[in-house]
Prior knowledge:
Layout (H helix, E strand, L loop, with lengths): L1 H10 L6 H12 L12 H12 L3 H45 L7 H37 L11 H13 L8 H11 L3 H17 L1 H23 L16 H4 L2 H17 L4 H21 L6 H7 L26 H8 L2
The chain binds a DNA duplex (14 and 14 nucleotides) through helix 8.
Amino acid sequence: MNSVLSIRGAQEEEPPDPQLMRLDNMLLAEGVAGPEKGGGSAAAAAAAAATGGIGADNSAEHSDYRAKLSQIRQIYHTELEKYEQACNEFTTHVMNLLREQSRTRPISPKEIERMVSIIHRKFSSIQMQLKQSTCEAVMILRSRFLDARRKRRNFNKQATEILNEYFYSHLSNPYPSEEAKEELAKKCGITVSQVSNWFGNKRIRYKKNISKFQEEANMYAARTAVNATSVSAHGSQANSPSTPNSAGSAGSFNMSNSGDLFMSVQSLNGDSYQGGQVGANIQSQVDTLRHVISQTGGYSDSLAASQMYSPQGINTNGGWQDAPTPSSVTSPTEGPGSVHSDTSN
DNA sequence: CAATATGATTACCC
DNA sequence: GGGTAATCATATTG
C-alpha cells in the first residue's frame, strides 16, 4: 500500500492532472460540481424551477433526469465533504502522533511536511475516484434519459394535426420558414428542430409513396378547404361539409362542386383586395383544392384544370427542392392567371 | 408477437 | 446551414 503512494507521489505533483481537469470540467458542466446554492434544500427547488421555466411536456420528460442528477449531485457533495473531513482528521491525528514522537526523537519539519503531503495526495486520489465514478453515473444517466432516440415519444394528436394541416395546405412547397417553424413549434408544444425533423420525415415519406398518404391528404385538404371557403366565401350556399371521412372523400366532392369552389377562389383572387391574410388563405386553398379535385376524379371534364391539377402522380417535379417558391405566399396581388401558373408545379 | 408508424440521428450533398 | 435518403430505436397496432 505504501508502494502505491510512493509511485503516485513520485510522478504526480501540483501541475493539474489533465485527467482530473477533464473530470472537474465535466462535473462542472453537468451542474454536479457547480456552486452550491445557498440553502440546503435549494437543489430540488432549483431543479424544479429550472424545469418549470421553458417547454411544457419537454421539461416534464427532463424532470426525472434532473431529479436523478440532483441525487447524484447530493451524493457527490456529501462524499466529497466526508473525504475532506476525514483527510483533515487524519492529518491532525498524524500530526499529533508526530508531535508526541518529537519528544523522544528529533523530527524535522521537512518530514512533517512530507507526511502531510502524502496524506493529502492519498485523499485526493480517492477524490479522483469519486469524481470518476460520478462522471460515469452522469454519463449513464444522460444516455438513459437524454438520448431522445431511446425515449422517443409520439407527439400528441393535436400537434400532429397542426403539422399535417400545415403540410397539406402547403403541399406545393412544404418548407416552412424559420418563423413558420417557430410558430408551429409554439402551437404544438415542441421544439423548432422537432418541427424540422417532422417536416423532413414527412416530405421524404410522402414522396416515397404518395398513395399511402392519399387518404390523409384528402382528409386534410378537404377539411382546410371547407374551412377556408366557409371563411372567405362569405356565407353562400357553401357545400355540405360531407363527412371528412377518408373513405367517403371521393364521393363527397363531385365535379360541379369542386368547380364551384375553384371559381370562388379564383374570383376572390382576382379581386386582390386585402392582401395579407386572404392572399395566404387563397394560396393555401389552391393547394388543398388541387388535391381534392384531383382526387375527385376531375380528369375527364375540365381539361385545362386536369392538367394543372394533376398532382404528384405524374408530377413533372416530384421533388420539391427543385422548384423554389413561385411567389407563393408573398404576392397576393397577382392576376388570376398566376394561380394557374402557380399550381402548375 | 410481427408489422407498421414515427421521431431522431446520421451521412452526404449543395 | 438546410435539404434528402437511409437508418436506428422506440411506440403503436393488429
